[in-house]
Structures are given as C-alpha cells and as structure tokens.
Write a structure and sequence with these properties.
Blueprint lengths: L16 H17 L26 E6 L5 E3 L2 E3 L4 H12 L6 E6 L5 H14 L3 E4 L7
Parallel strand pairs: 1-4, 4-5
Antiparallel strand pairs: 1-2, 2-3
C-alpha cells in the first residue's frame, strides 16, 4: 500500500530566454558580416545595328602534332622537312581563303618547338588567326 499523499508533479517547462539570447547573437553576427552593397543603376541605351548575315563561313584548318613530331593538316599526314613545307601545306589546305583560322591540336608530350614551327608557318603563310584546343580533365 502506498500511504504517501499524492503529490502534484510540476510540469516541465522550457526556458525560452537562453534560446532567444542565442538567436539574437546569431542575428547580430549575420548583420555584422553581411555586406550591404548598393548597386547604382545606370540607364543605358545600347546602340542597335542591323547587318547582313554572312553567307560565307570562315574555313578552319586543323593542324595536329603528336609526341613524335609528326604533323597532320586536316587529318592528312604531312612530311616535315622544314617550316617552308608546312607553309606550302597550309596554303594548299586554305585554298582560296585569305585568312582561315588555324586550330592547333598538340599532344601534351609534343615538343614545344613543333608547336612553334606550326605558328611560324602560319605567320609566313599570312594567317594571323591561331587558336589552340584543350581538353578538360575530369578528376
């Protein structure tokens, strides 16, 4: 038998004051660390132009260089005897184009001089637009 008087148990209560203090500290931290940048807006009226579409697309010449200094222009192997042979091959590949884009695809282990040879041949041929292709490595 239980002879003790029934005591009323106190209901547990959650004290909100420490939680409010923590939230205020977080709010003050966010207000201090946030940068308020006011962007000035300018009224800009851009010029408009109408032009004809270019029907003649610029031809590009792909020059590939492998690690053993073998050259290929537009997927055709070229024997390298000097820069002048590359000049002749580039002019032949260009045909009637006056300034085609030269795209150099060089192997990562290709000697630096082989790429310079292609650039020198393009300069001597009178072609000023040269670009290089790269490959993105996935990690």
């Amino acid at each position: 038998m239980n002879f003790q008087r029934r005591r009323s148990r106190d209901e547990p209560e959650i004290n909100l004051i420490p939680m409010i203090d923590v939230l205020l500290v977080i709010l003050i931290f966010l207000m201090v660390t946030t940068s308020y940048a006011k962007y000035s807006e300018l009224q800009i009226n851009l010029p408009e132009a109408s032009g004809e579409t270019v029907a003649d697309k610029v031809k590009s010449i792909n020059v590939a260089v492998d690690a053993s200094e073998h050259y290929a222009i537009n997927n055709r192997g070229v024997t390298y005897t000097g820069v002048e042979s590359l000049v002749a091959s580039l002019k032949d590949a260009a045909g009637d184009q006056t300034d085609p884009t030269i795209i150099i695809n060089a192997d990562a282990k290709a000697p630096h001089q082989s790429v310079i040879n292609v650039m020198e041949a393009a300069r001597r041929a009178g072609f000023g637009r040269i670009t290089f292709t790269t490959q993105i490595q996935n990690k």
